[in-house]
Amino acid sequence: MEKQQQAEEGATNGQTGHTNKRKIEEIEGGRRTGRLDAFVIRKKADTPKKLKAPSIEIVVQNGRSVVTYEKSVLSEDECAELSQEVLIAGHWSRDVIPTFGKNVLSPRLVCSFGDVGTAYRYSGMIRKGTGWPEVLLAIKRLVEERANQPYNYVLCNLYKDGDDYIGWHADKEGDIVPGSTIASVSLGAKRLFKLRHEQTKEVKEVWLEPGSLLLMKGDTQKHYKHCTVTENRINLTFRLVNHRSG
């Protein structure tokens, strides 16, 4: 079983654009480059700039199962800066998943943030919320505005390349407030997101651009599973959870 060492803060490498593979490798190797400053997306605003006329695509609309997609919640510069700051702020590790009597490491790195005392359970793992770093507060406010609901937890997934993936699954409902919306913010490389209806097996697809927002509303988790075909990227999945740790 791998032990994921916490990374140490150092000097930033000034990288912009998509997620830097070298920085990811440094995190896995137990070193952390960069310096965590208070994340301010725009100096004159405490949230990312609002789009005047957001273009929202309806991916699924089937009874109480609704999935919407907004392509450009964050600008390219905002997306690049947020990617770097989340890499630095997170205590990344691989999940250890019991599979057929063996412990298997997940094919991606994971970290979590949230209100103190919250937690989210999945695949035999429990990830606790230990507070919100400044880096995530601005984007959290924007997501809450777009989804028209509060959030108290975010699970962050870090995919290094196409070999890191997440297969067909539905988010665990037991720890999520019934009827609440799950919000997914994509950073880094463009990725293909698929939804499959449990009964009809019909598949819907949408390409998630860096800086985009996907909202899964209502009963989506009851009737659909989803998966990702990934490249070098970070995904932030905001949830309103009802499970308390400890």
Automatic annotation (TrEMBL):
Record organism: Acanthamoeba castellanii (strain ATCC 30010 / Neff)
A molecular function (GO) term: dioxygenase activity
Region (Disordered): 1-29
Domain Fe2OG dioxygenase: 150-242
Protein name as catalogued: DNA repair system protein
Lineage summary: Eukaryota, Amoebozoa, Discosea, Longamoebia, Centramoebida
InterPro entries listed in its UniProt record: AlkB-like, AlkB-like_sf, ALKBH3, Oxoglu/Fe-dep_dioxygenase_dom
Pfam families according to UniProt: 2OG-FeII_Oxy_2
Single GO biological process annotation from the record: DNA alkylation repair
